[in-house]
Specification:
The protein has 274 residues and is of the alpha+beta class. It has five helices and 13 strands.
Length: 274
């Protein structure tokens, strides 16, 4: 029977052995920060809007004969997308009596706060990846190579393939001879390389029924992207703060950050769904 730990539900455990476990509620154990660019220059305050502008040059130079002038001019065009700067915060309040009776419950609540902060970043990064307007034609060697060839830069050292389990199963079947498995899986989390690009499998791209006992992937989802495609603008990393109400013997722990996670270069994200 589930119980909510609050000030009206202080329990003691006499002559009992208490087995403790915090259910893992991380969306994925992959560190999503490795797939984005971190920018600590955010100056906007919460509630303000940060406008992300992506510029594309227009026009070209021309070879001219004597007395001729240019027929076109060089300029730039841009897309302007507004993002609201928000403070993400969670808090864990507890009383001294609770801490004395069941300190483990407080520890688990703080762990859950940390997991929620991580999940918030994961959800926002995936949301920006899903804005991709370029497509991977086929989830096989040829489709990936063609998408790589469409990347705007000649060399990209920070490309990655991020996909769910159903997409990985499909690519295993079609690319069983081309996939190169690596020992770096334990250290860095990727499960192979295709055309020189590391592959990462994550539950963050699982389109599952959250109410189902056994999640079922609805379709394959994969992204070929560069770290520079998505930027996390932030004032600083996650900070913790502790507030003490001595009169009521109450402590509150806060976790918060101020950030904007935005798709800053849509030319460097390719999407596959099937």
């Amino acid at each position: 029977m589930a119980s909510k730990y609050d000030t009206q539900n202080i329990k003691t455990f006499d002559n009992e052995v208490l087995e403790t476990k915090l259910e893992n509620q991380l969306i994925t154990r992959l560190d999503m920060n490795q797939f984005i660019t971190l920018d600590n220059s955010l100056t906007e305050a919460p509630g303000m809007t940060k406008r992300i502008r992506t510029y594309v040059g227009t026009g070209a130079v021309e070879d001219l004969e004597m007395g001729e002038g240019n027929t076109e001019v060089i300029g730039s065009e841009y897309t302007d997308v507004p993002y609201e700067v928000k403070t993400t915060q969670g808090k864990v309040p507890f009383y001294d009596e609770q801490l004395m009776n069941d300190p483990i419950a407080i520890d688990k609540a703080v762990e859950h706060l940390a997991e929620n902060m991580v999940n918030d970043v994961t959800t926002k990064v995936v949301g920006e990846l899903r804005k991709a307007d370029k497509s991977i034609a086929t989830l096989d060697f040829s489709g990936i190579v063609d998408a790589i060839a469409e990347m705007p830069d000649e060399t990209e050292n920070d490309m990655y393939l991020l996909m769910n389990k159903k997409a990985y199963a499909a690519i295993q079947k079609t690319c069983k001879d081309e996939l190169k498995y690596v020992e770096d899986f334990v250290r860095r989390g990727y499960v192979g390389t295709l055309a020189g690009v590391p592959i990462y499998v994550t539950k963050a791209l699982s389109n599952a029924d959250p109410d189902a006992e056994t999640p079922v992937l609805e379709h394959a989802e994969a992204y070929l992207a560069c770290k520079s495609a998505i930027t996390c603008f932030r004032k600083k990393g996650v900070e913790t703060e502790q507030e003490r109400d001595a009169d009521h013997r109450k402590t509150t722990i806060f976790g918060r950050d101020v950030k904007v996670i935005a798709l800053t270069d849509a030319t460097k994200v390719f999407k596959y769904e099937a």
